[in-house]
Amino acid sequence: MKKLLRGLAGLVGFLLLWEVVVQVGLVSKTFTPPPSVVLVTVWDLLGDPEFVRDVVATMLAWLIAIAVAIAIGVPAGLLLGSVPALRTATAAIVEFLRPIPITALVPLVLLVIGSGPDAKIMLAVYASLWPIMFNTIYGMGEIDPVLMETARACGTSRFRILSSVALPQTAPFVFTGVRLSATISLIAVVSVEFLAGSQLGLGSFIIVASTGSVRFDLVLAGTVVAGTLGYLINEGLEQLGKRLFRWSTVDREAIA
């Protein structure tokens, strides 16, 4: 409760500072509307079916992207973490691909598959894959070797070891990767919607508002909604992690 109250106090303080800065004329009301205007706009937008459709389109793409990233990242992390030779052999290409920003890949993806939902989902998967995979690899390194050796001594297959021994032991690490990737995926989806000119989505709404009627209250309202969604996703996953992994001593905030 104290954490919640402190967070709310900080948010209220930020909004008050924003309001004062705009009202005293330090920044233009035209380009930076005060929160008293932006929050009213947000409330009005929540009753607009077209805006709600944009939000749903963004969240659906986010959900598909994070699900695909988990389906790829966890098995890849388990495999690379359990086979050092394979991890060494793929290290160069992984470290080459990982730093590439999705913005650099947008033109290529648009040329190959167009600007439809597939583009933002593919790029969101690319952006959110790495934290899941690397947290899984890190978790594999933290497993007690005795557990793995005991399973091998009992004649357990590699697949069964990974699924029944390694995965439960690495679960807190994997979940941390998922939580980090969830917000990264949302950022990627909105960014691609914005850059690629998608027909639906929050990013599409923001770019239209900024270039069409030039309603900066709409631009900031869309941004506030995107930020709120990101906060709710992260907070929800954090609380879920605390419930699921009460037994774990892993510092889930420190792994990135």
Account of the 3D structure:
This protein is mostly helical and 256 residues long. 80% of the residues lie in helices and 0% in strands. The longest helix has 39 residues, at 158-196. Mean pLDDT is 85; it is low at 251-256. It holds the Pfam family BPD_transp_1. The chain crosses the membrane at residues 59-80, 92-113, 119-138, 184-209, 216-233. Belongs to the binding-protein-dependent transport system permease family. It is a multi-pass membrane protein.
> Taking all residues together, what is the mean pLDDT?
85
Main β sheet profile:
none
State the CATH class of the largest domain. Answer: Mainly Alpha
Helical amount among residues, as a percent range? over 70%
Order of helices and strands: HHHHHHHHHH
Q: Which stretches are poorly predicted, pLDDT < 50 over at least 5 residues?
A: 251-256
Briefly note the CATH topology name of the largest domain: MetI-like fold
Percentage of residues in DSSP E strands: under 5%
Oligomeric state, counting identical vs distinct chains: single chain
Write the layout of secondary structure elements.
Layout: H1 2-23, H2 35-45, H3 49-82, H4 84-97, H5 102-113, H6 117-141, H7 145-153, H8 158-196, H9 202-211, H10 216-244
